[in-house]
Every structure is written in structure tokens, then in C-alpha cells.
Amino acid sequence: MTEQRARRTDPHRRERIVEATVECIAEHGVAGTSHRRVAQLADVPLGSMTYHFAGMDELLREAFTTFARRIEAAFAERLGQGGADEVLDAVVDLVHVDLQRSRAEHVLTYELYTLAARRPEFREITQSWMHASREVLGRVFDPVTARRLDAYVEGAALHIALDPDPQPREQTRTALRLLAGR
């Protein structure tokens, strides 16, 4: 009789691969993300990559979806409940604190936008993200205002992240109030 080799049980391997992909994109961009690099970061055999994911596109979709869901949850948590004035104050914090939390999140966001701009199959992730943001804002504002505020959040966060002299919180608050008709 031959002995069977013991199989290593690793029930969280797929999730580790996805997390390592998010980390790899943040560090090296989409262009610098490879199966080999991700496997090394996840501490898994290279063969695990093709076992768990059909290809790089599937892996990127999963990683960006995971990242977008985290941002959506943080957005919903930050905005919580309250009236229009409380939500607008929370949006100011979102723009100046939450969305400025890390360089890695900026890179991930802009890498996703670039990929979605080039490849329509990735737009469903950004569309879902926008829909979730508008839905949260829609608890307090009409759909047109929610869309307007959501677009401003994206643009203001980008400007604050990249401008050497970013606008102060009070300017953000004023712009949000104007957009909300308050």
C-alpha cells in the first residue's frame, strides 16, 4: 500500500490571496501585479493562484470588489443617521479624514478608476460603488442632490489628496451646503 500525503488544510487561502492582491495593487499598481508577486505576498504556492482564480482578471475583479465594499461600508458608517445638516458635517469628515487615510487607498481608488475607464467589465464595480454612495446620501437628500454630492466627494477627495495646498474643511462645508441647497 502506498501512503497518501497529508493535504494541508487552508480554508482561508482564497481570502488571503485577495487581500494580498489588494496590497500588491496598492504597492505596485495593476501593471505591477502578477500571480507570482501575489502568491509571495499571500504566502501560498504559485499553483494556488490558478486553482482559486481563472486568471488575473478574475483576481483583480475580486480584489477591487473587496476594496470597494470596504469603502462603501465606511461611507455608510460615517454618514449613519441624522438630518441633512448632520449628514453634511459627516461628509466633510469623510472627505477630509476617511478619504485621506492612506496613500494605499488613494492608489487603489485611482487604479480602479483607470481600469474601469479602459475596460468596461470593471465598470460594474465603480457603478456599484457609486450606487451605494448615492443610496446612503439618498436617505436624506433627493436623488439629484445625492448624485451631485457624491460627485463632489470624489472630486474634492482627489484634490485634497493631491494638492500641495488643499482646501480647508470650511470651504468643503460651504461647497456641500451650496450643492445641497442649504
Describe this structure in words.
It is a single chain. Helices cover 71% and strands 0% of the residues. It contains nine helices and no strands. The chain has helices at residues 13-28, 35-42, 47-52, 56-79, 84-96, 103-118, 123-137, 143-162, 169-179. Helix 1 (13-28) crosses helix 2 (35-42), helix 4 runs parallel beside helix 7 (123-137) and helix 5 (84-96) crosses helix 9 (169-179). The radius of gyration is 20 Å and the shape is elongated. The model has no long low-confidence stretch (mean pLDDT 93).
Secondary structure: number of strands? 0
Major beta sheet summary: none
Q: Give the overall average pLDDT.
A: 93
Shape: elongated
Kindly estimate the percentage of residues that lie in beta strands according to DSSP.
under 5%
Which residues sit in consecutive blocks of at least 5 with pLDDT less than 50?
Answer: none
Order of helices and strands: HHHHHHHHH
Radius of gyration: 20 Å
Distance from N terminus to C terminus (CA atoms, Å) equals 80 Å
Q: Which fold name is given in CATH as the topology of the domain at 61-179?
A: Tetracycline Repressor, domain 2
CATH C-level category of the domain at 61-179: Mainly Alpha
> Percent helix among the residues?
over 70%
Number of helices: 9
Oligomer: single chain
Which superfamily, in CATH terms, is the homologous superfamily of the domain at 61-179? Tetracycline Repressor, domain 2
Annotation keywords:
single chain, 182 residues, mainly alpha, Tetracycline Repressor, domain 2
